[in-house]
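Lab meeting notes turned into a lecture example. A postdoc, R.K., suggested we walk through two folding results consecutively so the class can see how the record format repeats. The first protein's sequence and structure tokens come next.
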Amino acid sequence: MLTEIDDLALIGLCQSWAEYMEATEQASKTGMLVKSPSGYPILNPYVTLANQALKRVKSFLTEFGMTPSSRSRIMAVPGENEADNKWKDLL
């Protein structure tokens, strides 16, 4: 269950996902390897950025219980106002 206090973490998840998508798009355009200034092939910096963003995404997903292992540790108990929840029928 998300509360208002979770807004910043959700924003972080969304921002990290957007960074991952942008970096992977750029990496797919330029390739996994690029030439260094000295002419030697090196790992594309966009690949590094994508990997870093994906690590942040995984961290946020774990915080929200959205990975298989983190989900297995969640023990949700219905709250007192469960009957008043207008979203309960969607689940």
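The second example is placed directly after the first for contrast:
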Amino acid sequence: MTDFYEIDFWDVESDKSGDAISMRYRIGEKVYVHVVDGGYQSTGESLVHNIQKYYGEVKKIDHVVATHNDGDHSGGLRPILENFEIGTLWMLRPWIYAEELLDRFENYESAEYLRRKLRSLYPNLAALEDIANEKGIEIREPFQGQNIGAFSVLAPTKSRFLDLVVASEKTPEIATDDPMAKKAGLAGLFEAAKKVAKEFVNALWGDEIFSPKETSAENDMSVVQFANLVGDRILLTGDVGRGGLTEAADFAPFVGLNLPGIDKFQVPHHGSRRNVSSEVLDRWLGPKVPENQEGTKFKAYISSAKADEHHPRKAVVRAVYHRGGKVFATEGTSIQTNRNAPAREGWNTMTPMEYPSEQEPE
């Protein structure tokens, strides 16, 4: 039978955006089901329903990936684990590295105490661990170089992940001479205190203003996955930041990915200005193209709630178009990308977002 894939970016409608992605793909005689994040706890049941409805009454999910701890990504995975047979659960648990991290935390003398503390600070992942242990589900660490079905993990490396755990605002009691601690700053607080820009500025084609602030360490822990399915190069990014995207790009040649060259690109963190830059996007998607150039080089997908006035940022949408792409956002509806996939009744052609003629000021 013909190889195919279908990737669904499910609607996670709330006043804040969330990520819930599922996919089904055939390679040769084998069909795989793969879930990446599940939105909030309140949206997990709808994800279960959608998978059962559109993927042929699936009983087993081969791979479940929690890209990072945030509740808008991993919260909804609990019903997935509870309602399906699971092949492997992939997630990064800071607490299992307590012994390696102990000397970087000046107020902890016991690895066991640090383990308990870290586990309490990452409750969404801890809850998934509890369910997995109860059901006998295998848990594996998705570090750079691992293969998750047809997907290769491009980031993070273990060493960088541990650095991010130390830098995280969740774990402030760090050794004062740790270099990552000094770089941490107030990223988490900045992320929590975001405000909507009240005014926008008109901008010419090619102009891009990104935030000088970096995304949080927790976001940059996100698992970055790449696959070539039916000839399409697909990148899934979670909430990863510039550092993680750079680390992933450095590793891309080792999985046969020559950059720039992505066909289907998940824009990280619902289209935030703190996760990408012109330089990072040039590396992944290619340089800017002339205005009104015909044709579409690639397609980009953003999980953003219609009620979320923070996302996506206009500057990010503009940046995709500057490189010859088109942007599709959930914005109150589920969207899909596929190749050779079975037709679905009631699913219509998606309409891309319009190119914004203005953007957020610096």
